[in-house]
Each structure stands twice: as C-alpha cells, then as structure tokens.
Amino acid sequence: MSLFNVIGKREPMLDALEKATGRAKFTDDLTFPGMLFGKILRSPHPHAKILHVDLSKALKVKGVHGAICGRDIPKKKYGIVPMAKDEYALAIDKVRYIGDEVAAVVATSIEVAEEAISKIHVDYEVLPAVFDPLEAMKPGAPVIHDEVPNNVSAKIRKEFGDVEKAFFESDEIFEDDFETQPVNHAPLEPHAAIGLADHSGKVILYSSTQIPFFLRRNLATALDIPESRVRIIKPKVGGGFGQKIDLYAKDFCAAFFALKTKKPVKFVYEREEIFTSTRQRHPFKIHLKTGMKRDGTIHVQQFKAIADGGAYNSTAPLMITLACYFIMLPYRIENLLFEGCHVYTNKPVGGAMRGHGIPQVRFAVEAQLDLIAEKMGIDPFELRLKNAFHAGEPHPAKLLVQSCGFSDTLIKAAEAIGWKEKRGKLPFGRGIGLAGASFPSGVSNMSHISSGAVVKIERDASITLLTGAADIGQGAETVISQIVAEEMGVPLEDIRITAADTEITPLDPGTFGSGVTLRAGNAAKMAAQSAKEKLLEAVAEKLEVEIHQLEVKDRRIYVKDQPEKGMSFSEAIKVYQYSDRPMPIIGRGSYMPPAKEPTTLLKEDGNFSPAYSFMTQAAEVEVDTTTGKVKVLKMVAAHDCGRAINPMLVEGQLDGSVVGGMGQALYEDVLIEKGQVINPSFLDYGLPTAMEIPSITSIEVETDDPEGPFGAKESGEGTQLAPAPAIINAIYDAIGVRFKSLPVTPEKVLEALQEKKGKTY
Amino acid sequence: MKHILKLNVNGEDHEVLTDIHKTLLEVLREDLGLTGTKKGCDLGTCGACTVLIEGKPYLSCLTLAVAVQEKRILTIEGLAKDGDLHPLQKAFAEKGAIQCGFCTPGMILIAKAFLDEHPSPSEGEVKKAVAGNLCRCTGYAKIVEAILSVTEKI
Asked: Is residue A531 within 8 Å of A554, Cβ to Cβ?
C-alpha cells in the first residue's frame, strides 16, 4: 500500500478539460475593447548601422495610433542574465542579425499595422558580417558589440584535479571533434503579449512567458519604470521549452504603446518570426580529449567548446557553465579541464532550450564513450556502469549528490532494450545504443532561485493555494496542488490554485532550469505545513493531546494511536474559530535551495543545484541503406526523478523529450545562409510528426531525494539530454558508421555508406 | 468592404458582418469569439486550426469563410453535446494526452473526423490520421493512446 494518498497518483491535469473543450485562454485568445494591434519592422541585413529611420509615412496611414524606433525608447539594456545585458527592445545604433527589431507600429487592425510597417523607410549603412564563430574570434573580424572587441562574450576555464598529470598517467588517449546544429524550440503557441495601462502609469502585461517575475524585472528595466508599476499575468502558455524565458520586443512594445496610447495593445509573432527572431539551441563545436585507464576508468577529460551565440547573449554565461558542470555527471571524472566560450555572430540568437547547453556536450561525451569502448574492447554498457557516479560519494567539483539512481537507470534501460541479446548481434541495418545523463533540479540565475507560496484554509474547508510557479503545459499547477493536498491530508479536488500573477502570487523564479517541482513544490509544502499547524494547534487543545500526536488524512484530523478520536476538517475549522483564534488561517512558505550561483562557482567550488536527476536512454534503430533514412523503432527512457508526484505527467515529459531528442538527432536543423534562415516554417524545418514516433518505454527509478518535496526531483529537461546520443550510438551498431555531427540526415548516411564501401574494396 | 456572411457554426446560424477576404479561422476567432480554434502557423502546416466542415477536417487558416457559407461547421466548442463531453475529450484529459493544450482542439477534431469514418483503426492508421497535426509537448504517444482507447466507445 502506498504511503501517500495524492502523491504518486496519475491525476489528469487540473486544466485538461478546459483545454479539451477550447475554453482555456492563451494570450492571443484574450481581447479587450478598443484593442490596437502591433507589428514589428525587422532588419533585412545581418549587420548594419542604422543611419536614420523615417516613421512619418507610417504615421500618416489611417488607423495608425503610433510608430516608434530605437531613438524613442529608454536607453536601457536588458538581458535574462543580469551580468550579460546587451539588448535593446528596438535596435538603437545598429542591427546585428536578419530579423533584429528596428521599429514598431500599432493600429486599429493588423492589416493597417502591416501597411504602415511597409511605409517605414530606414537608411542603413551595411557593415561586413561574420557567420562562423571561428571566423568571429579571429583578429580583424567584424565587431558585433563594441564592448566585446573579440566577439567572445562569455568565457570560462575551469579545472578540477590535475589534468596534465592525469593525461600522463592515462593508458590510452582519445581525441575527437563534434558539431551540433541550431534547433528551434517550436512551441505550438506563437509568442504573444497584450499591454493594458491606466492613468497612474501602471501597466498590466499578459504574456506568453515562462518566467513572470523575471519578465517583470526586465520589462521595468527596459521601460525605465519601477517594478511596482508592472504587473505580469501569465495566461495559458502553449509550450515554451526555454524559448519563452526572454523578454522580447513584443512584450516591450505592447507595454510601451499601452502606456502611450492608454489603449489595450496586442502583439503576436508569426511563425516565421519565431524561427528567425526569438531563440534557438546554441550550435556547438566541440573538441574532446579523454584519457583512459586500462581497466576502463575514465581518468581525465579535456573539453573545448565553442558556442555560436548569434547576435546577443541571452543566457550565455549560464549556458556555458551548465555545459561545463554536467560533464562531471553522471560519471565519476576526477580530472577535468573545461574551456568554453560563447561567441557573437550575425545570426539568430541562442538561448535556453530544454537541457540548456548540456545536450550538445552529452552528445560528444556519449558518442566518444562508445568509440572508446570499441577500441578498448569493453562493452559500452559495462564501461558506463563502471564509471557511474553514486549518491554520497565525494564529488570532484563539490556537487552534493544526495540521491542518485544512475546505475539503476543503466541496468533497467539495458534490460528493456535487450542489450545482451541484441548489441552487435542484429543484422546489418539494425542496431541498438544507449547514453546516460544528469541534470540539475533548479539552477540559480544571479541568486534568483527562491520561491514562495501561500496556503489558506477557507471557512468551507477548501484550500486556496497561491504560487508564483508558471505552468506552461508541463502540469506544474497540478503537481504543486498534489503536494499541498498530500500535506494537508485532503483530496486534490479540495485545492484551488491561483498562479503566476506578479501582483497576487508570491515570488517565484519561473519555469527554467527544471526546478519548478522542487522549488515551488517545497515552498507550497512549507506553506501547507504552516497553515495546517495553526489548525492542529486548536484541535490538539480541544482533544487535550499534543500536536505531534495528530494525523490528517481524508479530510479528518485524528489522534494517531486512537483513530476514532478526532474530527472532520470542517469541524476543526469551527473549533479553531470558536477558540477565538485569528482568521483567516494562512500559511506561508519561502524556500531557498541549498545551491550556489553558477557563475560564482567559476571562482569557488560548491554545490550547483539542490538535487540532481539521472537517466539512461536506449534506442533501437533501423537504417534503410537504400534511402539513408533512419527509423527509430524503440526508445527506452529510464529516469530517476526522485519520486514521481504524478507518474502520468512524468511519462508525458519523457515521451515529449524522446521525440524532441529524436528530431534533433535526425531531422531538425535551422538552416542559415549568410545570416538568413532559409527554412523558417514547419513545412521545411522537420519537426517530428506522429508518423515517426517509436514505441516508447518509460521506466521510473525512484530514489526519494532528501531535499525534494516528498522526494521529488526534475523530469522536464534531463530527459532530453540522452535520446540523441543513444540514437547515434544505435546507428553505429546498425551500420558501423560513427556520426560526429547532428542531425544525421539521409544524405549523410548515404554518403557515409558510400565512403565505407569504397574503403572496403 | 464588409459583407454579411451566413455561417452555421456548432449548430447555430450566424450572420456576420465582416471583411470578405477573411479566413474561416479569423472569422471564428475574431468575429464569433470562438478562440478554441488555434492559430499556430497561419500557413496550413501545423493543424492547430483544424475544424470540421460537413464532418470533414479542414484547415480553417486556408479556408475562406465566404466559401463555406450554409455549411455545417464544427469547432471544438461545439463538440460536447448538452454538457456531455465527447469521449475523445474525456480520453485526452484522462490519458495525459494534453500538455500545453494548444494543439488539442485540432487534434481532437481530426481524430473525431477520422474515427467517424474508421471506427476500429490500427495504431498505424491513427498515427497517419493525425500526422498533419503537430505537437511539441507529448511526443504523440499519449495522444495515439487516447484515440485508440475510445475506438470501442463511439
């Protein structure tokens, strides 16, 4: 029998029926009387000085209520990482990529706004542009931001152990180069914002955001007004995957024009704009050198990574730090030298995307491990198992890993894919492979990692929960409500939740770094505990027992040893009220995870995240040697997420990650020629459809983390780290070709098969 | 220049005074306030705007409203009958086939149109039927599971 009543249950999402009936409101579904519609003029040049913007003709179009360009906005730079601010909402001095924001118009209809945009005249002085990060790093390359003359906007060098000595001690050394491609998050809901302003100069912004409180801060900065004059409300958000953590021109312009016109103002991006002018996964160039001991111990790794950041920083320092630290897990690596940098180019901007810097390095490490295993005559599964990290071990980077089910995920994934029977034994064209990974459960962004919650026990015995957590479709509101219901001893249906409104709900960092369940879950649990204790105090007094003797379950409070002695929740509230205690009964929780700021860790050792998840993914593939097409037949995702608060939602995260990871391994690539995205539509991009999906087996490995609420860790992002390398390793098993760049398209497969054939003869 | 369009949506007749060039998607969302039909790409490539016209699935972003006058149009808002949810709506919720929910209305309607014609499909046929509707959250696994779960019930 389960220890819990609500935790561990496959509860449907609280808003599932709203979504199934079309009643759920996303930002673009909202409308307000007198609303204006906005449009943004974007740069046609990858790099150019703005000499002059002439808005006069646009302003004369009937129905236009305003037109602005860079000279009209506060000269306040913003950025999601406070130390790396480098963006204006509209370009002030120059444009840095095709799609950069130049001007904006609002009008009575979108058609009028479009007409007005076409009448804006911009004088540019076209500058030489640079598209390759290696070229951008060379002396004499075009300078994209004056403050960064070498175009390297973030750089880290971190050494653990003694790398030089360790390479000297190694029995075998392996060196390989890897490359990854830009990937678009492609949330189905286009980015949108609606601004409303009152005469006191306060603005309300409805936005498709993942992080309302960061957006409030960034928007206040960009508008140059106090945070108290900005209220962010997050309606339903149609997926984010990291792309909706940044402030965009649509947010700024909706708020700016709302303040200016005192009318509601809506901006919605087109799909093409989402491909060209939001964010994408950073393409990496990686050089990886690994020193091995004869017995199969990974003794040392040296890692050089160059991330192509595009025109702006976004999360640059955070991303490159994540890449560094998560080479150090899930394997025990005593000696590591990581050198990484983020380089500006005149291309679309890199940003946080599910896994955030880690999928790229994981691909390199996991692909090389298979290569090493083969050359050293060790089974790839055994090699991984031998080097697996375990909970409680001292970590070379001082990470505090309190729970770790990595070995279990390896063993279970290998079993489920049929490792012993199939590896190396399937006919040519069929193969299996696996890969491991680890991910933090929450990452600090300049110490903004605290989360708060308020729980109220109402007179009718229902529970009201206020949380700042931002549900973007992953089910955060459901999971946090389950945590509160469990803590309060009531069924899930008794919880009413209000979330993600910066004026009503307590501070929360939002949805990023896969920390929502742990952070907001812990805060909500603390708030529930605090409210419950107030009620129990009154009940204990009435029953003449001590508080610790009481238990709450199924809406009933009773004495543990005498279950018949007790009362219902409703009666308890009356007892509370009639004993002259202050109403309402409110509990508060503020949770600060025991973890350091990542960029601080570059200077001093310490713990990165409150908890770490672990996973192994295994793939079985079939390669059509005539067409070069790779079909993923089966994926196994074994995941240690501590305890699954809602196994159905965890499975959903695993399924989505597997298919997204498959897309990134085989199909997805934002193709850019001379700075121009040439496939900015679903038709040309290669998002996986239902036709490509493999059979997916998800295995949850429970470890009960001491820091997580009811033992829970993350399941949203870590799950997307290992699918691509697992598939790449399976392709090797199938056709004996080792791919070192993503995606593995049919053209690449055919070319490699041709080359292999040539070599054989 | 505005015209009066006569549209039958979810069993109700509407006369809509609107621009003649508007797509059905625009008229549904902007003139009738039926925002359950979603605009994911406006190019007919994502399926989020799927509605049923005379029981057949159409991409409302590629359909002119003027061209479907006097025809029976069904949107997600009209699928539940007298407050009773369609089995697909229940199954999508209960099986975890909905995450962000943006693709859900189109996905449910394409599934309904398909099941109306193919009451006992194979898994492969279901996948093929929804292949034009994109989802980035679920990996389609639970969507296919939800659709298959109602094949006996309809």
From this structure: no
The CATH number covering residue B97 comes to 1.10.150.120
The length of chain B is 154
For A562-610, what is each residue's pLDDT tens digit?
Answer: 999 999 999 999 999 999 999 999 999 999 988 887 777 777 888 989 9
Same domain, B98 and B135: yes
Say how many CB pairs under 8 Å bridge A and B.
Answer: 174
The SS3 of residue A174 is strand
Q: Residues of B with CB below 8 A from A668's CB?
A: none
**Residue A272 in tokens:** 């093409």
The answer to whether the bond into A330 is cis (omega within 30° of 0) is yes
Contact between A20 and B103 using a beta-carbon 8 Å cutoff: no
- Is A241 an 8 Å CB contact of chain B? yes
Q: Which residues of chain B have pLDDT under 50?
A: none
Residues A366 and A360: their CA atoms lie apart, in Å, by 10
> What is the β-pairing status of strands A203-207 and A94-95?
unpaired
- B38·A31 Cβ contact <8 A: no
Name the token pair of A437: 């990974």
Query: Pick from B39, B79, B101: which is nearest to A19 by CB?
Result: B101
Structure token digits, residue A457: 């026990």
Q: Which two tokens stand for residue B31?
A: 């003139």
Cα separation values, A288 from A176, A338, A339, A396, A732, Å: 5, 10, 11, 19, 19
* End-of-domain residue from the set B27, B52, B78: B78
Residue A76 belongs to domain spanning:
31-127+188-239+244-277
Q: How many domains does chain A fold into? A: 3
* Chain B contact set for A26 (CB, 8 A): 35, 38, 102
State chain A's maximal CA–CA distance in angstroms.
93
Q: Cis bond leading into A584, ω under 30°?
A: yes
| Contact in structure between A356 and A511 (CB atoms under 8 Å) | no
User: Which CATH number is A695's domain given?
Assistant: 3.30.365.10
My answer on whether B68 and B103 are in the same domain is no
Residues pairing with B13 in the sheet: B8
Answer whether B137 touches A (CB < 8 Å): yes
Q: Which of 45-64 (B) contact A at CB < 8 A?
A: 45-46, 48
Chain A interface includes B32 (CB < 8 A): no
**Inter-chain touch A238–B102, beta carbons under 8 Å:** yes
Distance from CA of B7 to the nearest CA of A (A): 19
pLDDT digits (tens, 9 = 90+) for A65-88: 999 999 999 999 999 888 899 999
Q: Which of B98, B112, B133 should be substituted to probe chain A, the one whose Cβ sees the most A Cβ atoms within 10 Å?
A: B98
Domain C-terminal end among B78, B97, B121: B78
The domain that contains A223 carries what CATH number?
3.90.1170.50
pLDDT tens digit sequence for A27-80: 999 999 999 999 999 999 999 999 999 999 999 999 999 999 999 999 999 998
Q: Are the C-beta atoms of B114 and B129 separated by less than 8 Å? A: yes
Give me the residue from B75, B128, B131 closest to A22, CB to CB: B75
Q: Does A110 touch chain B (CB under 8 A)?
A: no
Q: Is A562 found in the same domain as A511?
A: yes
Contact across the interface for B100 and A473, Cβ inside 8 Å:
yes
Chain A: give the shortest CA distance to residue B147, in Å: 13
Is residue A24 domain-resident?
no
Long-range contacts of A746-750 (CB under 8 A, 24+ apart): A746/A627, A746/A628, A746/A629, A746/A630, A747/A628, A748/A628, A749/A623, A749/A628, A749/A629, A749/A630, A750/A627, A750/A628
